[in-house]
Amino acid sequence: MKQAATETPPRRLGPRPLGLHLAMLALSSSSSSAGLALWRNGWLDWKPEAREAARALGPSLAAARPADLDRALRRVQARRLQVFAEGVLAYRRHPHRRSVPEPRVAWSEGTTRLLDYRPDGGRPLLVIPSLVNRAYILDLTERRSLMRWLAGQGFRPLLVDWGRPESDEADFTLTDYVAGRLEASLDAVRRLDQRPPVVLGYCMGGNLGVALATRRRLDIGGLVLMATPWDFHAGQPPANAALPLATPGLGLTMDIAGELPTDVLQALFFGLDPFLVIRKFLRFARLDPASGRARDFIELEDWLNDGVPLVSNVARECLNGWYVANTPARGRWRIAGRPVEPSRLDLPTLVLVPAKDRIVPPESALALAGQIRGADVIRPPQGHIAMTVGAGCERDVWQPLAAWLEARKGP
């Protein structure tokens, strides 16, 4: 059922972590002042893509009085900080909240639920999201929902909603999630429908889906991997090279907190594009609050700031194992003692590799496609999140996915 209108909406905390974004904004201001001083002394080395614009701007800068130029720059810096703050406050105070009909819960164990989007039947799909972000990115609103759209095409999506880990899950490992919760959810799907479901994994959920498929091949009718990393050293941004240096501090944080907190996870994503949030909120500050674009921004931003922590064992497996040691690509990642070997899979597989993905570089995801014999590959022109809810996702992702599923429906 929909959220009651009389409920007090939760206080917004985003963009998280706010202090880090404010620090980056202050750093960009100070670097602008430093850059101006370097330019005056002829020491500024322009990036190739900026050199032409710099040459065109040069005469105007040279003609300006230094004191006037300094004052103008300070005004721009102050205005930028003001607009960013206005954008953050407008977001936090906006009355719009996500409100969608709650799907039926087909099964649950601990904090994990299996949400059934078409209880009256259809080819079953077991959909596995990441453990890091909330599952409802695949069901953001009634209008922007891959789950509801697939249900409308005659399929039966059953979405694994991990929930927030509680005390009895604090010691979980990836084995507990795959050999425990996912295998139990697969059993629940098989009880609902005798046909082996297609397993659809998104991001980290794709890794878990591959592990499940290697353990339960006969119970699975196909595999769809959306923006799923595999070779964690392929195409990675320079910021990831510093991760081994950060792991001792992250380990200490986990020893104290018993988990890798959401804000720390957000800080790790921050390294992929430190100015992304600043650009977003500067644009949002100029939007009409009543517009559809403002509503779309809020819905997605609420999801981004509604992350969940990773329990310590899982965080260590992912950071030290996947990102530092590259255990999946080297054949060293194990679940319940058995190696996860996609090269041994012989089931129909579709790998969706978004071309503009900055979270999972295409090279990392394509490495997984190369491991699975006969895997089909589609490369939509979206980014990591835009492939699920962005402009053109229905045309470029949802429809090709449904066509692939339809062609492999079987009896």
* CATH-defined superfamily of the largest domain: Alpha/Beta hydrolase fold, catalytic domain
Mean pLDDT: 92
Low-confidence stretches: 1-6
Distance between the termini: 34 Å
Integer count of domains: 2
Largest sheet: 8 strands, mixed
Number of helices: 14
CA-atom Rg in angstroms = 23 Å
Give the % helix: 40-55%
Per DSSP, what share of the residues sits in E-state strands of 2 or more residues?
5-15%
| Structural classification | alpha/beta
Element pattern in H and E: HHHEEEHEHEHEHEHHHEHEEEHEHH
Number of strands: 12
CATH topology of the largest domain: Rossmann fold
Q: From the coordinates shown, what is the CATH architecture of the largest domain?
A: 3-Layer(aba) Sandwich
The CATH class of the largest domain turns out to be Alpha Beta
Strand order of the largest sheet: 1-2-4-3-5-6-11-12
Overview of this structure, please?
With 411 residues, this protein is an alpha/beta fold. It has 14 helices and 12 strands. The chain has 2 domains: 18-93, no CATH class; 104-235 and 309-407, Rossmann fold, CATH 3.40.50.1820. The protein has helices at 18-40, 51-63, 66-93, 146-152, 174-192, 204-215, 243-257, 262-270, 276-284, 292-304, 312-324, 362-371, 386-389, 393-407; strands spanning 104-109, 112-116, 123-128, 155-161, 198-202, 222-226, 259-260, 310-311, 334-335, 338-339, 349-352, 376-378. The strands form 3 sheets. It has an 8-stranded mixed β-sheet, sandwiched between helices. A two-stranded antiparallel ribbon has the order 7-8. Helix 1 (18-40) packs antiparallel against helix 3 (66-93) and helix 3 crosses helix 9 (276-284).
